[in-house]
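Input (structure):
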């Protein structure tokens, strides 16, 4: 190996490795109710302070993943930090000034865009008026005794949340075919 090759391996290769391992950011403005129907997040989704840590169990076909989600919602904005149960950070989702910024720290092992977690968590928490304000014409949120249902313009169920008397809350996203069990830890 000549000096030039050695210099390349010694100086350039570590830089390439570091760049490859760095986090990736992108900004989104919309989320998806189904493969062809998008929405914006409610503007005033942080009118009450929320700090929580939740264990999400995502099930899709024969896959099951557990994720920890730390949520901070205040007048300054909304952030979700999604981690593996061992504490390794997968991604950070931040919402402020009308846009969503997603920073991926590691590859996210999910069958859908990670931003969907933000919509799913908010759908279980926000008031109907806040949700209804961003839904397309003909869509409706209904709160029943122990469940919340998002109904599409053709009368089909899009999302169903079961608020059982005991934890966890069960969210079913019908168009994307996954369920999430949400258990509050803190």
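Output (sequence):
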């Amino acid at each position: 190996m000549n000096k030039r090759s050695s210099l390349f391996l010694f100086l350039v290769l570590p830089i390439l490795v570091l760049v490859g391992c760095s986090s990736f950011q992108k900004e989104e403005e919309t989320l998806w109710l189904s493969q062809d129907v998008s929405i914006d997040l409610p503007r005033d989704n942080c009118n009450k302070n929320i700090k929580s840590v939740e264990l999400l169990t995502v099930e899709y076909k024969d896959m099951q993943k557990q994720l920890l989600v730390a949520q901070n919602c205040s007048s300054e904005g909304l952030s979700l930090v999604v981690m593996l149960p061992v504490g390794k950070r997968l991604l950070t989702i931040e919402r402020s000034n009308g846009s969503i910024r997603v920073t991926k720290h590691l590859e996210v092992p999910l069958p859908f865009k990670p931003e969907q977690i933000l919509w799913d968590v908010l759908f279980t928490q926000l008031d109907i008026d806040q949700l209804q304000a961003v839904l397309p014409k003909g869509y409706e949120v209904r709160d029943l005794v122990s469940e919340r249902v998002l109904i599409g313009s053709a009368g089909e169920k899009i999302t169903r949340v079961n608020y059982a008397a005991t934890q966890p809350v069960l969210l079913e996203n019908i168009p994307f075919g996954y369920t999430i069990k949400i258990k509050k830890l803190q």
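Notes: The first strand starts at residue 24 and ends at 28. Residues 3-24 have pLDDT under 50 and may be disordered.
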